[in-house]
Amino acid sequence: MRTLARLIGALALLVCTSVAYAADRTLPPDEDRFLNVPLPNIPLTTAAGERTDVAGVSGGHPLLLALVFTRCAGVCSPFLFSWRAADRWVPQREPVARLVLSFDPRDTTDDMAEFARHLGVSHDRSWTFGVAAPDDVRRLADAVGFWYDWDPSRQQFDHPAMLAAARHGRVIRLFVGTAIPSARLDELTREAAGEFVASYPLPGRSTFRCVQYDPRTGRVSLDWGSALLLVPVVAIVLTTGVMFRRARRVRPFYRLPSSSS
Questions:
Q1: Considering the entire predicted model, what is its pTM?
Q2: Where do the domains of the chain lie, and which CATH numbers do they carry?
């Protein structure tokens, strides 16, 4: 009986772990877990056939990283095109390196070169398309919380669309979404360059909010929490007004003696 109970307990634990793992894979990465994590300096080969590494691509400048695969029938191309479109509206305060790396072992440098031409950045030296060894790509992906799983039924990879910003070889910020607004890309770029960028809570992530940030549009609006900031001010004004009114109604309880002639 004890053996049977242990087997049932082990099976239940395995099922719960598998369910939790599967649920976790469908969610975007928890950004707080990956901030300031060192970015593995993996070797890679660019679309032009040059052997280099992540540090060589960044050249000491802020780095924006996207992991894709060329046979993607879903979000990869639209995501990169939105990045390219948003990039045209972001002021270039300093050089920024952009690395697009394939996580598909089938992709070759020629595939990535064609991808760069398709995006219209094959002659832009700030963009680097490349491939790397599968184990190295996995280490890099794990460092930024990016996951990808092969689905044999669809012959496609399941994966999020994500952009990682790094500075001095460490992860600074992550963006997950099907498209990149120019305002959000500007924040990523400025923060990767070392500027202070005010952060705002995402929808549904905080109960008390003074402002609401919409990652789809990059707009910030006042939320109900900002009204609470006015409560102390209103209370002080009302209290002061009441005190002055009472002071005017109170009569003096003594009179000054009149001077005798």
A1: 0.68
A2: 28-199 (3.40.30.10), 200-248 (no CATH)
